[in-house]
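Notebook, bench 3.
Goal today: get a predicted structure for DNA repair protein RecO from Streptomyces scabichelini so we can plan the truncation constructs. The sequence was checked against the plasmid map this morning, with no discrepancies at the termini. Length recorded as 262 residues. Pasting the sequence as submitted so the record is complete.
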Amino acid sequence: MSLFRDDGVVLRTQKLGEADRIITLLTRGHGRVRAVARGVRRTKSKFGARLEPFSHVDVQFFARGSELVGRGLPLCTQSETIAPYGGGIVSDYARYTAGTAMLETAERFTDHEGEPAVQQYLLLVGGLRTLARGEHEPHLVLDAFLLRSLAVNGYAPSFSACAKCGMAGPNRFFSVAAGGSVCGDCRVPGSVVPSAGALELLGALLTGDWATADACESRYVREGSGLVSAYLHWHLERGLRSLRYVEKQPYVAKQPSIEKQP
């Protein structure tokens, strides 16, 4: 028998019996973990509210030796809140749908339970923090998270140099199958010709250039989101269910305020 603790983000919950839940978390040291939280659906539960999606928690697990290698599920015996990101996310539809897509993406990129995925964990924590604080538009936070998740899992797209021959960009064509921007000589069937503004935006989101991303025009935001979605679906081999619910309202770039002169 074994007790172990870890920090984690709650990805989703499932009902189990009359009062229990199965909690799926992405943890710092143990990767994706599924555990049983007993009695958390009862109104008198002391820590049920802490184990809701978007919550960043410090959790203690109890497991028998066989459960540590994938047979059965460990028990979640204690939980302390590190950051309740859900409070700043669930009250806003755009943030909520973007956050749900982020949770699903993190789970999909961590297929093997118990296998550490520290970069994906840190990326998710940072993304939820940014989303909850409202520092940037939800569309942009989601696309930045998706691009960086692809990158840390070995699928980083190229938005300037040719993905096949390395020719310095900017290059005119973009191919999901080829890995991003491609030159005229490396162009493959199915390549598209995105605008330079959309490629500049995606490059900025991948590298964290938020000044460029926040000032981008709405047409480039919509075009860039389409490219990100297609690229993600290609590498995951099937789409994300939550992406269909992401807020579709057009994004309007923020304009600098003009102070009135007395």
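The chain has two domains: 2-84, 88-245. Residues 151 and 241 are 21 Å apart (CA to CA).
Flagging this for group meeting.
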